[in-house]
Amino acid sequence: MRCASPLFVCSFTLQSVVLSAALCTNSAEAALVGNYVVGSGANASFIQFQFTNENTYLYEVRYNGSMTGRALFDVVAAAQPGFFSFTYDSFSFGDFVTGITIGADTDFGYGSPPDYLDYWHYWTRASGTDAWTESFIGFADRVVANGSWDGWAFNSASAPNAVPAPGALALLAGGLLTTRRRR
What are the tens digits of pLDDT across the range 78-87? Predict the structure, then answer.
């Protein structure tokens, strides 16, 4: 993918490097549509949702005590009624997420023929720097830890695409505020 950024002409500072990295994307990076912080507490876990159109949302969920992947969804739903919703079916082996809606993006499915990919694939990682691994337990049974990530990708057998780390997003925002246009 080609990168062009006529918006800024920057000197080579850490901020401009982060800005360039954010403006220059490749096919392995997600289209980050929204980045939200919800809940309260000393711990933070992250949930990344990637829709079929590759629109991606990143949530930092704050909490105290013990929390499951399912409980993270409940915190987000309570914080964003009418914007975030999800559906699931319960079975003896656990809950199966069938649909997620965030704003105007929505995907729903059970894994239908011919390719059986139209469902929400569940991925996890211990931190933002670790590789994604496919989860072999359901989100209601997964106990998250401070700094852990849960990833959900619809209609794809691949792990969620890369998004900027939450710290990089803060650095980028700071860089946008302090970068001056040079002539």
Answer: 999 999 999 9
